Amino acid sequence: MSQAVKAQQKPSQNYTYTVSMRCQLCRACACKCPPFCISFVGGRAVIDQSKCTHCGACYDACKFNAIDREEIA
Ligand code: SF4
Ligand code: SF4
Known about the structure:
Layout: H1 3-7, E1 15-19, H2 28-32, E2 38-41, E3 44-47, H3 57-61, E4 67-71
Antiparallel strand pairs: 1-4, 2-3
Bound molecules: iron/sulfur cluster (2 copies).
């Protein structure tokens, strides 16, 4: 997804973020995560949802579109 399209969408806090099987273990997301709540387990990144602040930095940092987000109801 392009940065322009991302910019038109709702604030990052309106979404939950999870890592998909598309993860390539590049670790770019973990480097950008302010609360350091991304670890690497079972061949891919994993987000600790109890610590995630929904900032969206990992989603923006992932060049493989491996992070899925779902709008919070
Ligand atoms: S930035 Fe994307 S591909 Fe890289 S480790 Fe994170 S989720 Fe995986
Ligand atoms: S949304 Fe922000 S706090 Fe949550 S895992 Fe991604 S970078 Fe970390």
